[in-house]
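Supplementary notes (optional reading)

For those who missed the lab, this is the record we used. Protein: Methyltransferase domain-containing protein. Length: 284 residues.
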Amino acid sequence: MATPQQPKDHWSAEKYHSAASFVPKLTSTVLTYLAPQPQDKILDLGCGDGVLTAQIAAAVSSSDGGKVLGLDASPSFIDSAKRNHEGTTCSFHLQDCTRLEGCAELREGGWDKVFSNAALHWILRAPETRESVFRRVHEALEPGGKFVFEMGGAGNVAEVQAGFTAALVSKGGLTLREAREASPWFFPSTQWMSQMLGRVGFEVEVCELEYRPTECSPERADGSGGLGGWLRLMGAQFLEAVPEGRREEVLREVEGIVEGVVRREEDGSRWLGYVRLRAVARKK
Ligand SMILES: C[S@@+](CC[C@H](N)C(=O)[O-])C[C@H]1O[C@@H](n2cnc3c(N)ncnc32)[C@H](O)[C@@H]1O
């Protein structure tokens, strides 16, 4: 029998640090909503390189029964998180969060809070697994437990999404439909999210959108960072929709399109149109 193919790992802690280190930093509101307590047992879905997970773990105490477990589908991120942040209150597991039914720690339940930052728009990409993600999170929580998260919401980086779609058609030779289907993201509205949370049994305490333009990190001499580094890292799955030989041309086209929209006249800085969806939902 053929061995099932492992999905490609698009992430690397180094590239993430160069192109998007602001992601775990711009989290003061969602962390206020999470309000980690010493005794809390907290799951972090799509924990990435574990920087934020470790920050949360610093607020919990093993002697009070507290612990934080980060789950992520990227072997490279989980390796880096284990190397740099594993400790008495903080651990990490490789886990595809679209298949949480296979996660023993989650099935055991007993979690006080489930947290996620900047990951659910990837995890919820496929329509057929969306509802099960919410159901598994609900089952894992104690009664009264909270699901607290921030993710891309409706309209997030719309210029990037439109730029990739246009470039995949004009330079990649895809049809418009194929180009749209190459998007790795799902950016829901607050209405969609409130309905979904309610359907699986949560009481929605907060569900809000914030338009938060975010400055791209400076470009580095090695080509990482900057708008190009962000597009290459976050848009890797768009690029994979075309043969390797066409990817650089597609990327240059996207950069050209997006640059015209996000570059600020006064100082040449580039600001992407981030729209964040934040929610706090309580298990009844
Ligand atoms: C932008 S990073 C955010 C990482 C971290 N939460 C932070 O705030 O820095 C998105 C993360 O979602 C993870 N991810 C995407 N799809 C996933 C899936 N199906 N299951 C688990 N993690 C996933 C990626 O591997 C990546 O680490």
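If you only remember one thing from this example: The chain has a mean pLDDT of 93.
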